[in-house]
Amino acid sequence: MSPITVVEGRRLSLTNLDKVIYPETGTTKGEVVHYCTITADPLLAHLHDRPLSFLRYPDGPDGQRFFTKNVPPGTPSWVQTCEVPHTTSGPTRQVLVQDLSSLVWAANLVVELHAPQWTSGAPGRADRLVLDLDPGVPATVVECCTAAEWLRERLAADGLGAWAKTSGSKGLHLVVPIEPTPSERTTAYARSLAVEAQRALPDLVVHKMTKALRPGKVFIDFSQNAAAKTTAVAYTLRARATPTVSTPVTWDEIAACTDPAQLTFRFEAIAPRLARHGDLLAPLLDPGRARPLPQRPR
């Protein structure tokens, strides 16, 4: 029989807690759920009001993986949902994880959590701009750091502040709080930055996804600003060989990075980092940090 737990007055059946999800480290499903509970405060803050997409990997990263934006079958009635118009197949309903009980329910499914750059109250109007820096082998996150520092200075020239997190995979995400702006305009601005970065750093940066162009360079993916696209949220576990996390980092850490291991964080490192730094992405939650996009790209 599956153990029953009560979270915020709601009964949850937690299944297969002893199941090993990450064989390389022996990490169990129970540890995955526990991680989400101890990281709940900042995780929920960054999930708030954002329709979620799930990458599910119930048998671990080497097992079957499937991505879904629809509300999963069997979702409890108390889990909030919202209608999302911006999908390739028309309107759909997606989950909102707004409280601890919903987060524990989602963690029990073993998921990566992905969200758009807009909230459910303003679909298609981005309040964040994201730049996904993805290194092509043999480039690593070290090269991403060089590109990130250039982008930070370029954004500052337009009056925009940037905060950074690891992708939890190979690269970095730069996140910029902006005044609500149509996703089409946000995407166009992000593309202009990627093109400009390639022009300034031609031996380092590429702005096109073409695989033949990417070995040894950093691909700046601006497309995740499109209304229908999503990005892994801060503090989510990733379906990688080990339980790595999309982790907020400081600009000092980025400037000092000379080895990918310096910016690779597994789930057990997150609580100590929160105790030391707090939530490094907390400024994204402050409406006073949002700035308008420039009227036209340079």
Automatic annotation (TrEMBL):
Top-level taxon of the source organism: Bacteria
InterPro entries reported for this sequence: LigD_pol_dom, MtLigD_Pol-like, NHEJ_LigD
Parts forming coiled coils: none
UniProt keyword Metal-binding present: no
Record-annotated DNA ligase D polymerase domain positions: 28-280
Keywords (A to Z) from UniProt: Ligase
Entry annotated with the keyword Endoplasmic reticulum: no
Molecular-function GO term, any one: ligase activity
Listed name of the protein: ATP-dependent DNA ligase
